Amino acid sequence: MDNIPELLCDEREMNAAVERLAEDIGKVLAPHPGDGALVGIHQQGVPLAERINAVLKEKSGFEPDFGTLDISMYRDDIGNRSRLPLIRETRIPFDVNDKLIILVDDVLSSGRTIRAALDALTDYGRPRLIRLAVLVDRGEPEFPIRADFIGMKFAVPPDHKIQVRFETDPDGSPGIYDIKWPKR
Amino acid sequence: MQWTRKDLLSLYDLSGDEITYILDTAEEFKKVSERRVKKVPALRGKTVVNFFVEPSTRTRVSFELAEQRLSADIVNMQAQASSLLKGETLLDTVKNIEALQVDLVVMRHSAPGAQAFIARNLSCGVVNAGDGAHSHPTQALMDIFTIREKKGRIAGLNVTIVGDIIHSRVARSNIWGLLKLGANVTVAGPATMVPREFESIGVRTCTNLAEALEGADVVNMLRIQRERQTAGFFPSTGEYAKFFGLNHDRMKYLKPDALVMHPGPINRDIELTGDIADGPNSVILEQVTNGLAIRMAVLYLVGCVKK
Amino acid sequence: MNEYILKNARIIDPGRNIDCKGDIGVDAEGRFAEPAALKAPKSVDLSGKVLSPGFIDIHVHLRHPGNTLAETIATGTAAAAAGGFTSIVAMPNTKPAADTVGAIELLHRLTAREAVVRVLPCGCMTVGSAGEEMAPIGSLKSAGVVALSDDGKCVQDHALMRHIVEYAKAFGLPILDHCEEAKLSEGGVMHEGKWSVLLGMNGIPAAAEEIIIARNIIFARKINWKIHMQHVSTKGSVRMLRAARAEGVPVTGEATPHHLTLTDECIKKFDTNYKMNPPLRSEEDRLALIEGVSDDTITVIATDHAPHTRTAKMVEFDYAPCGIIGLETAFPLCFTELVKKEVISLPRLIKKMTVGPAEVIGIDNYSMAPGNAADFTVIDPEAEYVIDKETFKSKSRNTPFDGRKVSGRVVMTAVGGKIVHQA
């Protein structure tokens, strides 16, 4: 079977990568207490941002503002999908003006999601700066978009998908997987 | 679940899950109107035609605003069903609209099923903005959204709809939506306007208002059309208000925290007294606000799905 | 014409109470004959087939003159032949209406030119079927009408109706009445009941039909003249008709295949091919109608064949014209739904499509007895197929039965010995 997920990285390594990300983000946000914010992009960017937040809090006692973002209303493939998944909650409970915002997503692939997220986020106001943190960078974005904080890099063929599973996900066995998953 | 429909024609067609899905989607769209930038690019580059073959102000404005907030391009068309009859057929008219590469048609029409008929013959999406006495799905969805927002649920609630049930598309759409989500529905009004046939689908029918209001969590007071009086359905608006209007005395039958709703436009002091329309139980203006969110959600769903 | 013998068929001839295997001859004049009396006949083998007198449909709209885009005498009679009908009664609501001698003469002329089955004219009861002035009933009789009807409309003025029945009796013309109280049905587009309420459509109450059925029974009893109730559709109508017939009142009733097979629930998708008048009724009404067919309260199956162009039907349900075509689907539908489901036997179904209608319009001794015109229909009772409207001979396609699986096929139809349809 083609579509049996292949484990790229186990839970322990994955958690270590999350800790490294948190550490790097902490260094950038620490000089600006009260101005930093983490915004996780649905789906897997949200649990990732929560974990980064928890590490920041535990390691440095430091807790930035926290938000979630669904980019469905900003996608560039409208009318190309025969089934629409439910829009998840966008919650930006802080004033984004003049904030230092770290956008968090699990995998940087084409860059299209980040393009949409930037549009969505700037509709809420005018942040001082926006940086991008990802757990996995596939290395070949279709848009001129690069991550500022990278947990790890994997190069997989274009018809493969990288899936990040946390221990709270229903399909279990946390880790990072490579799945052959032809693009529709 | 995931959304797959290109049209929204009636709530009778939808499952309870699909209705809940629209309500959930509308939660997110409601926030868009509360933001600094009240607009998202979801329908950017899409063209929506608002085709109203029956006069309407409120519904058309609400749809138009929803379309603008989704960044769609909009064309408004008005026609009279009678003039369509004499000249071009409805189908030819909408086929001509479609030939202009339109993505969505929002249509109101006086004939039940007119939208279902054109949807079968068009590849673009069709949203029903009211078809005769048959269906008005977005109105019912906004009513149900408002109830869910205030009460946290629909299942198990006692909802009473009062007025000209037989001629009301709002009543029919609310009935289907509420039943599918598990509410207890009562319809009430003059015997000439409350067909007992509704009991066959599990709706309680009532011609005594006190009985209909007893223990209700929600009461939806429908607009009464004065032309029904000349057609012999009831003797006078005065008598209507006396027996079927919501007034201070009748509020005691409702639960204390009951919601008072009205699809508008209100005939003050006929369907309900002005102080109740403006009072603490009234959610009439919130229905209007939520209507915008519902229409954005519906247009997003049928507009974004692959045709 | 060559003589021939129809061999080895199951002969069902209700007029003579015959149901047996055998042979029937057709002579050179196109009449039924004893096979032994023929000199050098050819033979036609009908093993496994049923041989019936030609079907009669006393309720057909040919649209000619007036709406020849929907049907013509040529296409309408070809459809009749394909459905096994050898005689049809042409309803007078053509444009212009058949309310004058000239209109009937035109029909005779058109029929002589292009009809393939017998077309029996029916005249209007009132001028233009407007329900206001009595039509020239005596003159219409002289021109050759076999009955009177304002079908599509109903005389609302009871005094006028009474006079029409009295006057028609003197000329021996039966009344075929479309029973509809217009004030009660005004604005209605479907049966008033559960589905009209759920769909928000204006209903036509059963009472609109039943009030006029009651009126007609009262007049038929008082005047002692034949009133035939067209397309009976409600439980109450069947009940009144049953009681009146038991009492000996000279009333008869017909049922259409669509009222026997479809209900108002079919309308929930707003397909205008389910729009008719009288409307498709409730399941309770449909079952009552079947009971009426079963106990001979209803003695006639008639199609109310009502062609409409695709353009006319491709509109909003409210604005669509009423009616469907029925000639080419009547027998298989009734065979499938009534005979196969054991409501009535095949001989009794044939009776309701031959002798029953013949009696209404005053044709006595309708049978395959030697000497009678050789109008006959051959049925393959074993055939099973799916109705395909694209195979129809009718010029119109407005049927809700396209794609329906049925049993029983009309394989041959002959008028005066001449074969006018063969499948």
Question: What does this molecule look like?
Answer:
By secondary structure, chain A is an alpha/beta fold. Chain A has a single domain, classed as Rossmann fold. In chain A, the strands form 2 sheets. In chain A, strands 3-2-4-5-6 form a 5-stranded parallel β-sheet. Chain A has a 3-stranded antiparallel β-sheet with strand order 1-8-7. In chain A, α2 links the parallel β2 and β3. In chain A, α1 crosses α2. Chain A is globular and about 45 Å long. Chain B is of the alpha/beta class. Chain B folds into 2 domains: 139 residues, Rossmann fold; 151 residues, Aspartate/ornithine carbamoyltransferase (Rossmann fold). In chain B, 40% of the residues lie in helices and 15% in strands. Chain B is built from 12 helices and 9 strands. Chain B has a 5-stranded parallel β-sheet with strand order 7-6-5-8-9. In chain B, strands 2-1-3-4 form a 4-stranded parallel β-sheet, with helices on both faces. The mean pLDDT of chain B is 95. Chain C has 2 domains: 98 residues, Urease, subunit C, domain 1 (Roll); 308 residues, TIM Barrel. In chain C, strands 1, 2, 3, 4, 5, 16, 17 and 18 form an 8-stranded mixed β-sheet that branches. Chain C has a 4-stranded parallel β-sheet with strand order 6-7-8-9. A 4-stranded parallel β-sheet of chain C has the order 10-13-14-15. In chain C, α4 crosses α7, α7 runs parallel beside α8 and α8 packs parallel to α10. Chain C is globular. Classes of the chains: A alpha/beta (184), B alpha/beta (307), C alpha/beta (423). At the A-B interface, loops of A face α1 and α12 of B.
Write the layout of secondary structure elements.
The complex is a heterotrimer of chains A (184), B (307) and C (423).
Chain A: E1 6-10, H1 11-29, E2 36-41, H2 45-60, E3 65-69, E4 100-108, H3 112-122, E5 129-137, E6 149-153, E7 160-165, E8 175-180
Parallel strand pairs in A: 2-3, 2-4, 4-5, 5-6
Antiparallel strand pairs in A: 1-8, 7-8
Helix pairs in contact in A: 1-2
Chain B: H1 16-32, E1 47-53, H2 58-69, E2 73-78, H3 81-86, H4 90-99, E3 104-109, H5 114-121, E4 125-131, H6 137-151, E5 158-162, H7 169-180, E6 184-188, E7 204-206, H8 209-213, E8 218-221, H9 227-230, H10 237-244, E9 259-261, H11 274-277, H12 284-304
Parallel strand pairs in B: 1-2, 1-3, 3-4, 5-6, 5-8, 6-7, 8-9
Helix pairs in contact in B: 1-6, 1-12, 2-12, 6-7, 6-12
Chain C: E1 4-13, E2 18-26, E3 32-33, E4 42-45, E5 50-53, E6 55-60, H1 73-82, E7 85-90, H2 101-114, E8 118-123, H3 137-143, E9 147-148, H4 158-170, E10 175-177, H5 182-185, E11 190-191, H6 194-199, E12 203-204, H7 206-223, E13 227-229, H8 235-247, E14 251-255, H9 257-261, H10 283-294, E15 300-301, H11 310-313, H12 330-339, H13 346-352, H14 355-360, E16 376-386, E17 405-415, E18 418-422
Parallel strand pairs in C: 1-4, 1-5, 6-7, 7-8, 8-9, 10-13, 11-12, 13-14, 14-15
Antiparallel strand pairs in C: 1-2, 2-3, 5-16, 16-17, 17-18
Helix pairs in contact in C: 4-7, 7-8, 8-10
